[in-house]
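Hey, I'm writing a tutorial for new members on how sequence and structure tokens pair up, and I'd like a real worked example in the thread rather than a made-up one. If someone can provide the structure for the chain below, I'll link this post from the tutorial.
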Amino acid sequence: MLPSTVDRVPEQTATHVNERIRLRMRERAASLAAAGPAAVAARLEELDREWDTERTLEANAATLTAVGSALALLVDRRFAVVPLVVGGFLLQHALQGWCPPLPIFRRRGIRTQAEIEQERYALKAIRGDFAHFRDGTPGRAIQAIHAMEA
């Protein structure tokens, strides 16, 4: 059975690496909570620019595919094996959540989109963005969706 999209990368990552990523997020959130609203807002802007594992893998695969194809056309056709191998690894990543560069990226702290979103919503909660949803009004779900879009 194929793992879920959200779980597939963490399931294929060493436990200590996942823990280190979670610990760094918790430490950042705690220090930002103490630093105040301006620091939280600045970090939220940084999170908008953070590359996740998917984007990083796609950029690297595209680069290797382009270089391998150019070398196959211009130097030696045996370089055509590079895009074939890269494509196979991308398929493996899509299905299983693992490919050869992923352990390196994860050890460098590159997170999944879900992990980035966890930090984003923790910071928004620290900032108080969700405080008004506690009243139980009927439009709470729509308000929550609007808050997520903000």
